[in-house]
Amino acid sequence: MLPDIYRETLARYWGFTSFRPMQEEIIDSVVSGKDVVGLLPTGGGKSITYQLPPVAGEGLCLVITPLIALMKDQVARLKSMNIKAMAIHSGMTREEVEISLDNCLYGDYRLLYVSPERLQTPLFRARLPRFNFTMVAIDEAHCISQWGYDFRPSYLHIADIRDMTGDEVPFLALTATATPQVVKDIISRLKMKSPRVLQTSFRRSNITYVVREVEDKSAYILRSLKKEKGSGIIYVSSRKRSKEVAEMLVTNGIRADFYHAGLPQEMRDRKQHAWTTGAVSVIVATNAFGMGIDKADVRFVIHWDCPDSIEAYYQESGRAGRDGKPAYAVLLWSQDEKRKLAESVKIKFPPVEKIKDIYEAIGNFYQLPVGSGKNSVHDFDLWKFVTAFRFSVTETYNSLNFLQKEGYLEFTDEINNPSRVHFVVSRDDLYKFQVANEEYDRFIKLLLRTYSGMFSEFVPINEEAMAGRSGMTREAIYQFLLRLASQGIIHFIPGKKSPLVIFTEERLDRDHLQISPDLYLKVKERYLERVTMITGYAENTTRCRLAFLTGYFGEETGRCGMCDTCQERNELDLSKYEFDLIIEKIKDIISGNPMRPEELTDAMDLPQEKSVRVIRWLLDHEKLHYDEENRLSWKH
Which terminus of the chain is more solvent-facing, meaning fewer CB atoms within 10 Å of its CB: N or C? Predict the structure, then answer.
């Protein structure tokens, strides 16, 4: 049982009077010094399990996560709650990283967020032994497993931290989607000793899972949205389609908007806010939409395009119904969808020689000599790169992902880094400067009134907002900042938005770039297995949808009674027990012994009417078929 201070802290900072399922058990185990693997669903409150202990107790929690946008959002939210937190990621300068690490060492910080590739840098490793870490939290822990759907080699170095922190510092590995095999891999690779595996059920009983085989997706969605007036998400696979579908909905009188990673950050924030507050009821989005969504009343999630894994589908569809009220998860399916998934295997895995071409071109793009560049970080303009070398965008993107899986480099999605300011003079010296330079006085006062903390760390600023407050132009604000920097008063880092490429190893020449054929084939096979499983889910017509999903994650549950396959079965007016009993009898009787329908019903020794209904159902779902002699046999 947790001491009262933990509940008091939960109420004081987060405003909750009780824990969500499994949160208390996870926190209790970690503060007792035990290693824990926590499996909590999307929206299940994973972050509180590692944010609360250092705030209620003492010391610093190291949080490792690959999601830079989520990391920055969480740090901003914690700071707004007066909890001292810091983030270190690839988009920062060396000076920013040094100041951030020093602040965490000496400034009573509670949480330090780090992206996994930063763990290996000399700068971080030199300071690591000096930190008073009381726990290490690994978010998206499935990334450590080659069996997982998002393997990242940089996660394999996390266990090295144990040598520097000591075995007494507990590790908490968190994920929303892990099969039993992945959980086993997480425990092994993090060198966990007698860990507790704590998980909530994968069963989302309030969500009705449905697959609809439709050719005209627009017509189906319009019909559905006329019945369902609540808030929802429609997931699509391309940026172009997100805009097209949203425009089609707006034309038909539905308050909709689109969202994808290629939009400016301010616009993305505006669109997400409009949807969260209800000004827009339907958001049509790529899978870039989802991180940090805090909206409980999502009544439906529709997948226009099928994701390429059960993990992705479960995570995205699980954004529906977090308030516990009835919600729908609908997958639109067609034979064309099946063809696209099959073709995606070729697209996702460019030929090995092409991957080597792209690696070589990236080294030339940044003019990196062979043998140099380890831990170097580079802005990456994908369009500029593919235009310069005449590569295809898809082939380049997928080659980068494979090079990441091999551990040669890291590739981030676009990072929105606002401008940052840090005063490099003391308050006294700044005052003297203001007195001696009256033309800067008004601007410096504006800066100090608008933002705090700039004497101890780099603080994100918004030139647009400052312009609005002061009546100055954005350009005038920018020029003031540049001039103050040139006079040594501030360190100013202008904002930029760019994906990044990080060389985690020195650049190799082509002949030494090892892309193991075995690994290539294994990764390809695992991807193919995941595509086969999601195709199986979509084409399944007999097994309960929810039972199919939970079974994939190793949890056997009964049928939900609500999904499309259960509804069809319900129409037979048979209990699950009766239905399963009749099917087993049919299987036993005709296994290797085909017979005519009337012979089968006679052999059943059950009410004929019920047997006939199940036989018809099995024929409709192509589980039984007639041979050339009009006899029934089981279709394997």
Answer: C
